[in-house]
Amino acid sequence: MKKGCFANICLIIAVLFIIIFIYTPNKGFSSDPKLYNLHKKTTQMILLREQLIRIKTEVISLKKSLAEEIQNLKKEIIHEHNHLKIRSYEEAIGVPRIFYNIKLIQELSSYVNGLDKRALFISNGIHEIDFVLAQSKDDLKILESISDMEINKLLVQMDNLSIQYNSDVKKLLLDKIEKRQISSQKIYSKTFE
After folding, report:
1. Residue 103 near residue 184, CB atoms below 8 Å
2. Are 125 and 165 in contact (CB under 8 A)?
3. CA distance linking residue 173 with residue 170, whole number of Å
4. pLDDT band at 76, cuts 50/70/90?
5. Are 57 and 7 in contact, with CB atoms under 8 Å apart?
6. How many CB atoms lie within 10 A of CB 99?
7. What is the pTM of this model?
């Protein structure tokens, strides 16, 4: 099963869960605004989680294709190096194809590093949301016995996660990735390791 297909199935299941979750009559649901808010925020967290999972899948896929491109560029460098019987780095960067491949590897490598940071951030967000959803599920089960203060605390926690990750998801999609380039000489020498 393809990753995209799996993500779509997860999204469909989540939407079905949300529909059932919202329209299932619960004791005191309509008369208790805290219970209504908890249901509403839980639904928002589920949707945000699914969005983060989709973005993480895209980031991983992009990272994989960039890593493949880097390997192809390294193969070209090795081919040119062997074909032209190059003996030094200085001689190698004098060959335009090798020089530009090294520069492109620098750019792609810094981009991959930025994607690693984003994937870690997204994974952390998914774990935080999972924790809050589990807490919400537990609180809904024992709603009669928990205090308003505990529900308020959970609602605030959900609001904070929603604000943080909704705004950060937009940034992830729009922000330029911070680049930290590896020296061209290091790339050249690592190509032959």
Report:
1. yes
2. yes
3. 5
4. very high
5. yes
6. 15
7. 0.63
Query: Which single residue is written with the structure tokens 């959970």?
Result: 154
Joined tokens for residue 115? 């994607």
Contact 188, 109 (CB under 8 A): no
**Summary count for the chain: helices (H), strands (E):** 6, 0
pLDDT in tens, 22-57: 545 454 445 567 777 777 888 888 888 998 999 899
pLDDT digits over 171-182, tens only? Answer: 665 555 555 667
Residue 28, Ramachandran bin (φ over 0: left; ψ between -120 and 50: alpha; else beta): left
How far is 168 from 13, CA to CA, in rounded Å?
25
| Tokens representing residue 17 in the block | 């869960």
Q: What is the DSSP string of 126-160?
A: HHHHHHHHHHHHHHHHTGGGS-HHHHHHHHHHHHH
* pLDDT score of 6: 60
